[in-house]
Amino acid sequence: MCLAIPMKVEKVEGDFAVVSSGNVKRKVNLSFVKNVKIGDYLIIHAGFAIEKLNKSEAKKTLEILKELK
Amino acid sequence: MKENKIILSHGSGGKLMHSLIEEIFLKSFKNDILNKLYDSAVIDFGEFEICFTTDSYTVNPIFFPGGDIGKLSICGTINDLSVCGALPLYISASFIIEEGFDVITLEKIVKSMREIAIKSKVKIVTGDTKVVEKGKADGIFINTTGIGIKDKKINLGFEYIKEGDKIIINGDIGEHGLAVLLSRNEFNIKTSIKSDCAPLHTLIGAILKEFKGIKFMRDPTRGGIASSLNEIVKNRNYGILIYEREIPIKKNVLSMCEILGFDPLNIANEGKVIIICDKIESKKLIEKIRKNKYGKKAKIIGEIIKEPKGKVLMETITGSVRIIDMPIGEQFPRIC
Amino acid sequence: MRYIEEYRKPEFQKKIIQYIQKSVNLLKDKINLMEVCGTHTMVIGRYGIRKLMPERINLLSGPGCPVCVTPTSYIDIAIELSKRDDVIITTFGDMMKVPGSYSSLEKERANGGKIIVIYSPYDALEISKKYFDKNIIFLSVGFETTIPSIAQTIKIAKRDGVKNFFILSGNKLIPPALEFLLKEKSSKIDGFICPGHVSVIIGEEPYRFISEKFNIPCVISGFEPFDVLYSIYLILQAIIRKQPKVINEYKRAVKKSGNKKAREIIYEVFDVCDSEWRGIGVIENSGLKLKDKYKEFDVGIKFNIEMKNKEGNKGCLCGKILKGEKTPFDCPLFGKKCNPENPVGPCMVSSEGTCAAYYKYERK
After folding, report:
1. Residues 66-125 of C with CB under 8 A from B
2. pTM
3. The total number of structural domains that make up chain C
4. Superfamily of structural domain B31-150
5. What is the ipTM score, two decimals?
6. Dist. CA A62–CA C177, nearest whole Å
């Protein structure tokens, strides 16, 4: 029950933001996330942002991956 | 066939459509030419062969990024003839038009057909027009039937395919189906994805001239490459193995599939050809294909294998292998 | 940087699989790990993860597919409603092929039923503003990942004074289902792979009872193949060290406290109630119904509809498969009478249903 992907914020327009991933853009609802800025990555599910991607945690996970090499 | 009513999935190029064809049409019409189920009928005329094909177009919306129903109808028929080894020559165009259809729109479609026919050096030589009451056709339906001439020295067919042969595709997959779906604007998603609709006869003609090791070709339209690859192995004594990492796909198509939950292998293409060729010639063949404007992103995506017979396998990016099934009817976007 | 492909590099996979093998070597028995998210089932199948596992690891699929656990009566009611001239049904695509007692939404659409597939519940509300002379009914299924979006859409509908938008309630909650599975003891579960995006909403706390009450470790996992493999490794390590705890592998998206705002909105619009899970039965406090303040959006009230319990199809083992008691290979209908073109139970219909995933990926 979980099809959601990180998408990058291109524009913020009140309750909505335009987000993109690989040149695909969609307007999404921001009711569940605060202080959204351009350049943030949001987890998008069914047209709503359900969370902000934590970039530092994302990088930490990638570090774990690299160490595994 | 369990259904007593036709559903949309019967037209989607997957399992349901195949059972409809087999259990209703083939059952009544069977003959040695039709039974082969190639993209065109190949008819022996002694010194040469004629290829003969027909297709109907019902796309909605009529105009979409990268093309329109007119361009689609001509390219589709050109490609069905080309993949059977023929030089496309003459096309018929038959129109079923809904009462109330806009004349300027009709002119646009016809102009589009003319442009692509001239560019492709095929002549539209005969046709038919019917107008039906409002509500009896979705705007406009076009049927195109094409004939082309084939050199008898060109031998293409399932019987020539053998273990070790390579599988080539001429470029990025999954564009046409998505371009059409998204231009209906039901999902409010903006994208630059364009249909790959294109006539491939110059590309195919050039490679058939130079390479004798080409065994078989198919254009992966409805049902995507998953459908075509399964058609190639069905009831045969070989299987197919493809490599996920080798399949050319644009980033925006991949993103769209991830957002909507689609499998790119099941999405229609209209400017792609799957080529099965001898291993020895494959490297040189790829180089030749890449010289053509419709083959720049060509890749060898897999090979013919001995076992398991009749199945299509894919090595995923984790290194593990899974089965690619014939798709079942229409794909719907998922949230899960 | 898309924060997607970076987690898919094959060289990472190979190393974790070695670590998993080393961990399994330190354990004696067969290890049963259950994932409860249809998308995890899909990822495991799509990337052949089951085949990469050492033999002694058994990956079970639990009731995390909202389509699979929707009762037949829900689909039958949706179909009946679609036949009305004054109704447009709006639904997620997942529901289209689910068989009810006698038909499916896909088949009804072919018969002229007005059924529109939407990507977002908000789009369904937009449709109701466009077709103001029709009753737009949204099939409200899904777990905690999706519920906030539906709740927010209903709030917007109320704010905008929309009178022709309704939902057919079918949402369910994951933690009560997990507790139900563990209480039953019909399957020996050694660890849970918890749904990453449900956890984005509910956080880590709701899973604590699994480790504290039942002594079982669980890992909140993301959805890239790396995430799932790494989560399996983390559960095995917790089992080896006898440290049952809640581990968050998906920290890039899941906060410890989850998304408080999203939860507030859910419980502003919905109350918890009992709910019927197909193949399992009624699980207490596992469903949602509209609060009195929002009852005007309940189609059950508008059209005076009552959900009736219906038996599943004979021979269909979906219920036991969802509970992890049986695999699709144990079902006498699997691959024969029941296959993706002619599904008997929803586990075969949903593209993420256990049986569909097994049929597509696990069958040799």
Report:
1. 66-67, 92-94, 96-97, 106-107, 109-111, 116-120, 123
2. 0.91
3. 2
4. PurM-like, N-terminal domain (3.30.1330.10)
5. 0.95
6. 33
